[in-house]
Specification:
This protein is mainly β. Helix content is 0%, strand content 68%. It contains no helices and seven strands.
Length: 87
């Protein structure tokens, strides 16, 4: 089963020189076609991943995001076992 691994590498907002939680909207594209939109909130400087179910992932994946603070994200296509979700 194909899945998309969305990794949030960094997400926060600076307020009075302190890191605080923020929100981001990630848009995942397969080529030029939008395949998923994810709302993300929180704060991290350590990578956190989320897996999204997907169909045919033939073509290049990319992620774009809007965020009121600082964000860094990446996406990759992976194959996962449908019964145990292992890759």
């Amino acid at each position: 089963m194909s899945s998309i691994k969305l990794t949030v590498k960094r997400l926060y907002q600076l307020r009075d020189e302190r890191m605080v939680t923020t929100q981001a909207t990630a848009r995942i594209y397969l080529g030029d076609r939008l395949v998923a939109t994810e709302e993300i909130s929180g704060m991290t400087e350590s990578p956190v991943s989320k897996y999204l179910h997907a169909g045919d992932l033939t073509g290049p994946l990319r992620v774009e995001w809007d965020c009121a603070g600082i964000a860094d994200m990446s996406v990759t296509a992976i194959e996962r076992c449908p019964c145990c979700q292992d890759h």
